[in-house]
Write a structure and sequence with these properties.
heterodimer; A: 144 residues; mainly alpha; 2 domains; two-stranded antiparallel sheet; 2 helices; 66% helix; rod-shaped; B: 598 residues; alpha+beta; Penicillin-binding protein 2a (Domain 2); Beta-lactamase; seven-stranded mixed beta sheet; 36% helix
Chain lengths: 144, 598
């Protein structure tokens, strides 16, 4: 009886160690799958969040584009306004309105300065570049 | 033990189920968010985006130095969706705001907004009531005003149902300046149609391409942001040879001529004789392209290229140059001017003042008809015809505008007996003012017939690439290079003491030119009361910076070219020489002239 018991116990022990090994193996596989699942989940979540971020960025870019478009329209409007204000018809009207005593200079009163930018300022290490100015006084500068 | 086993199996089963579910969810997420992302995203986007068609910017027109002459002013068309505009109170408030700033009766806007439905006839003839989704509030509202209105409506939460449709309107910042050359455009069924001038001639290249773009909108239909815009090509920018400051001078002086002599029309053209660049060109009457009420057919027709005139005495130097070039006469050759009246082929020909024997230089200076006719007789019909033809009469000038007349120059085989005495003094031959200016360019530049240039270069605004219009090679007229100097010296006499155009003289500068006074043809005979008065010349005479032609059509009070158009020539030329900083030949003259004026 005792022997039987002993054998049973031995058989039971063998069986339990086998099932333990099985359970351990299963748990291990489960753990691996779980880790894999978590990694996959993380990857998918990351991909989703990236897509969401891209969509958000696109929206911001579109909004900025819209703003730029608006600024461009304003700029266009200001450009045309400036052109209208600098036209001779407008300037002449203002001269008349404010009674400005302006008159065209005599040719001899005009000094012509020829600026010859021989070298690019960027080429001379940030220096102001070489500006060659020649003053042209044609036939007498002392008139009036 | 059995219970434990069952439990373990159940737990395992549950775990497997959870894992499977987890994988199913992950898989579904993968399919939805990654695999079918674009498809589903686009499907969702369709729910909150709209598509709108727009076009790029029409090309702008600039002068030679880059001053803007024609641009596109941004503006908006305000439209409403009455169905979405809210209740009576909201419609009332919206109409009050819009009416106040758009100068439209608010009651009118209110009645538009409050009408929420409309009746529609079905194909079977029955009538159904449908929501009313469109009402036009105002067109072409300037940008600052539309932006202000948009802001106000948004602040008061009244923007729902109101949309601001962006577009551009053609705008001419200099108003009347160069209006006839630039032309104008009209809007027909939302399509821009170029009507005249540069706008029409270059319509294909300055027209932009269309674009379709999508924008996100809120539930109310209010645009939130532009989502996707197809690339569009803007029209090319055109740079003319015109110089705006000179153009302003020319137009100002032409206005003065109109005020003083009240002609039916007046023209002035300034050309660089070296390359044919038109520096300034104007006609009166003109119009303001920004104000359609000023547009009459007389005002916007391009008369300087489509109308013709008999140039009168301005033709004489051109005819005589043929005789000088072939050594038939020289400036000192004496001609009998018959004491002012001469009969040829049974018809009389007279001079304004009687002259006896006079040299060719004197004939040009005093503008003798008899002397010129006798020189033409010495030349013969074929040479006279060849000379006039060589100076461009009877041909187009090359100016990029339509419709351009070729004028009238009859072939010698169709001439009658009198033709040879009338054609050299500008009768029986007709030309446009632009053709006359071109012929004078040849007199000024040493006998080279240049093609007129109005467009200097075109620029692609997208790429920045600029293409220059080539200067065409000029056709050489003179056989003898000395002809040029002889002609200049004779034409200088016209503005000197004893000449017909002392009023065209500019103190300090030498001016070469010729007056013209021609009677208008009235169908069967020449009028005794209606004239063309003209002056064509160039300055400084020895090294011309420009050729200038001024013409008055039917001036009142006086009709002589020297009297009517001479002073206008002088004023335009003097101011232009100053602007170009051309130093006077005689440096002491301008100061004295100023003292005289003061």
């Amino acid at each position: 009886m005792n022997l039987q018991t002993r054998e049973n116990h031995r058989r039971k022990t063998v069986r339990s160690s086998r099932s333990q090994r099985k359970a351990f193996g299963f748990s291990k596989a489960l753990l691996h799958m779980l880790i894999l699942g978590v990694i996959l989940f993380a990857l998918v979540t990351m991909r989703i969040s990236l897509a969401d971020q891209t969509a958000k960025d696109n929206r911001i870019a579109a909004s900025l584009k819209s703003q730029i478009h608006q600024y461009e329209r304003e700029l266009e409007h200001l450009k045309l306004k400036r052109e209208a204000l600098t036209s001779w018809t407008h300037v002449r009207a203002k001269i008349k309105q404010y009674n400005l005593a302006l008159s065209a200079p005599e040719p001899l009163q005009v000094m012509q300065v020829v600026i010859d930018r021989r070298s690019n300022p960027a080429d001379v290490g940030g220096a102001s570049g070489q500006l060659l100015a020649s003053q042209t006084w044609r036939s007498g500068s002392d008139t009036q | 033990m059995i219970r434990n086993n069952t439990l373990a199996v159940r737990i395992k089963f549950l775990l497997i189920l959870i894992i499977l579910l987890f994988f199913a969810v992950a898989g579904r997420l993968y399919i939805v968010q990654i695999e079918r992302h674009d498809e589903l995203f686009n499907k969702a986007r369709e729910q909150y985006t709209s598509t709108r068609k727009t076009s790029g910017k029409r090309g702008e027109i600039y002068d030679y130095s880059g001053n803007l002459l024609v641009g596109n002013i941004p503006c908006s068309t305000i439209e409403a969706d009455p169905y979405a505009c809210g209740n009576e109170e909201q419609c009332r408030q919206t109409s009050l705001i819009l009416g106040k700033y758009l100068n439209i009766p608010s009651e009118k806007i209110y009645s538009d907004l409050i009408q929420k439905t409309r009746e529609r006839k079905r194909s079977d003839g029955t009538v159904e009531t449908v929501p009313r989704r469109y009402a036009l509030i105002a067109r072409d509202v300037p940008l600052p005003k539309s932006e202000m209105l948009k802001k106000m409506l948004r602040e008061q939460n009244l923007i729902r149902g109101i949309s601001f449709k962006e577009h551009s309107q053609r705008f001419y910042p200099k108003n009347e300046l160069l209006a006839n050359i630039l032309g104008f455009t009209n809007i027909e069924r939302d399509q821009l149609i170029a009507q005249l001038g540069i706008e029409k001639f270059f319509n294909k290249v300055i027209s932009p391409s269309d674009s379709v773009y999508q924008y996100e909108r809120s539930r109310d239909g209010v645009p939130l942001a532009v989502q996707h815009r197809q690339s569009v090509n803007d029209g090319v920018n055109i740079y003319l040879t015109i110089q705006e400051p000179i153009q302003s001078i020319l137009e100002e002086e032409l206005d003065k001529l109109m005020a003083e002599w009240q002609p039916q029309a007046a023209y002035a053209i300034m050309v660089n004789p070296r390359n044919g660049n038109i520096m300034a060109i104007a006609q009166r009457p003109t119009f303001n392209p920004n104000d359609r009420s000023t547009m009459t057919s007389d005002a916007y027709r391009m008369r300087f290229i489509s109308d013709t005139l008999e140039p009168g005495s301005t033709m004489k130097p051109i005819s005589i140059s043929g005789a000088i070039d072939r050594h038939i006469v020289n400036p000192q050759t004496m001609i009998d001017c018959e004491k002012g009246i001469w009969f040829y082929c049974g018809k009389s020909l007279s001079d304004t003042s009687p002259h006896g024997m006079m040299n060719v230089a004197g004939i040009v200076q005093k503008s003798s008809n008899i002397g010129t006719a006798k020189i033409a007789l010495m030349m013969g019909p074929q040479l006279l015809y060849d000379t006039l033809r060589a100076f461009g009469f009877g041909q187009r000038t090359g100016i990029p505008l339509q419709p351009e007349t070729i004028g009238r120059l009859i072939s010698p085989k169709n001439w009658d007996g009198l033709s040879i005495t009338r054609f050299p003094m500008g009768y029986g031959v007709s030309c446009s003012p632009v053709q006359l200016a071109r012929a004078y360019c040849a007199l000024a530049n040493g006998g080279r017939l240049v093609s007129l240039r109005l467009v200097d270069r075109v620029e692609n605004p997208d790429t920045g690439i600029t293409v220059k219009y080539p200067v065409r090679e000029a056709h050489k007229i003179y056989r003898d290079p000395a002809t040029h100097r002889k002609m200049i010296e004779m034409m200088k006499l016209v503005t000197r003491q004893g000449g017909t155009a002392r009023q065209a003289a500019i103190p300090g500068y030498e001016v070469a030119g010729k007056t013209g006074t021609s009677r208008k043809w009235e169908g069967k005979h020449y009028s005794n009361t209606r004239y063309f008065a003209s002056f064509a010349g160039f300055a400084p005479a020895d090294n011309p910076e420009f050729v200038l032609v001024v013409i008055a059509d039917e001036p009142q009070k006086r009709h002589y070219g020297g009297v009517v158009t001479g002073p206008a020539f002088k004023n335009i030329a003097e101011r232009t020489l100053r602007y170009l900083n051309i130093q006077p030949t005689d440096p002491h003259m301008p100061s004295s002239s100023i003292r005289e004026r003061r």
